[in-house]
Amino acid sequence: MTVCFKTKRWRINLRDHEFMDFSPNPDEVPSKLVKEIMSESTLKEIKDNWDEKYPNNPV
Q: Which domain of life is it from (predicted)?
């Protein structure tokens, strides 16, 4: 999953819930946004959407 803000992009691994890149610094993502993304219900929705779009590469 990718979080976008202007020209910055932060990739988050849907399997281990970790940021995949060091640059831009993941600490620049607002903590409230990270908390919402990492919530159980949001992750479930994102993963379900991923699995639907990519059935041959499920999370």
A: Bacteria
| Average pLDDT of span 3-21 | 96
Q: State the Cα–Cα distance between residues 25 and 11, nearest whole angstrom.
A: 11
SS3 category, 8: strand
Rg, the chain, Cα only: 12
DSSP code per residue over 11-24: EB-TTT--B--SSS
Q: What pLDDT shows up at residue 41? A: 97
Domain boundaries, the chain: 2-53
Q: What is the pTM of this model?
A: 0.83
